[in-house]
Design a protein that fits this description.
By secondary structure, the chain is α+β, with helices and mostly antiparallel strands. About 25% of the residues lie in helices and about 30% in strands. The longest helix has 22 residues.
């Protein structure tokens, strides 16, 4: 892990990220549905759901169910019963790629905080496109610029979502965010 600090919108943010990672999505679809080992929960903020509804011209109830007590996420994407995959995955292609939810933009990473304003990115072990060594690297090298952009994206999306739902998101208030983002 490497520690990095930067200033965004008048506040200082610190985060840790894994070293020597390379990644380019191979469009395998693993992250878009359930596996034998894991049931996916593709969570949506209110903003994510409204954007998808606007783009697809479908009401939110057609593609998502409400999720109580998962603030700032208020919906969970529906999956096809036959495959357990996101309803917007067709031939291993995301039909919403340009407006995909925050949680999808983060994959194969998770973000958590220690409650003292230090964030930590962790990589999943299951993604076949994530390479952990330079010797076998086939994707783009991930550095502080990549992780800074993800943190800024999360901050903007979650703060906007929380302000629209009237709640508070602990990850950006200096409190513990035990579920990650």
């Amino acid at each position: 892990m490497v520690s990095y600090k930067f200033q965004a919108e008048g506040s200082h943010l610190s985060f840790n990220y894994p070293l020597d990672l390379h990644f380019t999505c191979s469009q395998c679809g693993l992250c878009c549905g359930d596996t034998k080992q894991k049931t996916r929960h593709i969570l949506l903020t209110k903003n994510n759901a409204e954007t998808i509804a606007n783009v697809t011209k479908h009401p939110i109830a057609c593609f998502a169910n409400q999720t109580p007590e998962k603030t700032p996420y208020v919906y969970e994407m529906k999956k096809t019963p036959q495959t357990g995959q996101c309803v917007f995955l067709k031939n291993n292609q995301c039909t919403l790629y340009e407006v995909r939810p925050l949680i999808c933009r983060f994959y194969p990473f998770e973000l958590s905080t220690n409650g003292e304003g230090v964030y930590t990115f962790r990589a999943t072990e299951e993604c076949p496109s994530l390479c952990r060594s330079e010797a076998n690297a086939s994707g783009n090298a991930l550095d502080e610029t990549f992780f800074t952009a993800l943190l800024v994206l999360a901050r903007a999306e979650l703060e906007d979502s929380v302000s629209r739902t009237g709640g508070e998101h602990p990850a950006f208030q200096g409190r513990n965010c035990s579920n990650g983002i």
